[in-house]
Amino acid sequence: MDKNKVTMVFLGHIIRPIVYLILILIIYFALQYSNIVSAKILDKTAYILIVFASSYLISKIFGALLRWYLHRMDVKTTGRLESKFLPFADKISIIVICTIAILMTLQHFGQNISAFLATLGFLSLAVALALQEVIANIIAGFVIMLDAPFSVGDKIKLLPSGEIGEIISIGLKSTRLKSSSADVGILVIPNAELARTRIINLSKQ
């Protein structure tokens, strides 16, 4: 992807939130000078709208930069990173940015967020412990896609089991292998387990 195309894609992602932010500021200053709405209500409403419009802009900038980075990495991962990892990363970034925006808004209006942060930390820890295997598989999947020890269609041999099969899909959580043994069929291997396994890529010998 050349620089001009990268610039156009980047601008295409951020132009809408920038327009929203400018419109909010224009309406804010227009109402401020017209005295139609009380200054207190106007300031509170403007703060909320500006915080969330800015959060929207930040999420779009992050998404555009992430797309650019993953597109660069796709040169050696044959297009898997952008299609597999991007939707997941987009959702996580939106959740994080929205949470920060909500906390900023609550704190601005004098709310004590300490209890909320403690609860959020406890819930995050509980979710992380409950989904530790899923998280480990996702991280391993990202590493496999980035390192690219094999591609879809490659025939590999798993050690020490000696199982031989053809890679039919590489997902975030697991990799599917069509076994050469007629009585086995499709093997679904968690990525964390696969990342710890010694592999011989028979297609790249």
Molecular structure report:
The protein is elongated and about 80 Å long. The chain has a five-stranded antiparallel sheet with strand order 4-3-2-1-5. With 205 residues, the chain is α+β, with helices and mostly antiparallel strands. It is built from six helices and five strands.
The gist of it:
With 205 residues, the chain is α+β, with helices and mostly antiparallel strands. It has 6 helices and 5 strands, in the order αααααββββαβ.
**N to C succession of SSEs:** HHHHHEEEEHE
* Rg from alpha-carbon coordinates: 24 Å
Distance between the termini: 31 Å
Strand coverage percent:
5-15%
**Helix vs. strand class:** alpha+beta
Q: Give unreliable regions as ranges.
A: none
Strands of the largest sheet, in order across it? 4-3-2-1-5
**Morphology:** elongated
List the helices and strands and how they pair.
Elements lengths: L2 H32 L4 H39 L2 H29 L5 H17 L1 H16 L7 E5 L4 E7 L3 E6 L6 E5 H5 L2 E4 L4
Antiparallel strand pairs: 1-2, 1-5, 2-3, 3-4
Helix pairs in contact: 1-2, 2-3
Features:
single chain, alpha+beta, five-stranded antiparallel β-sheet, 6 helices
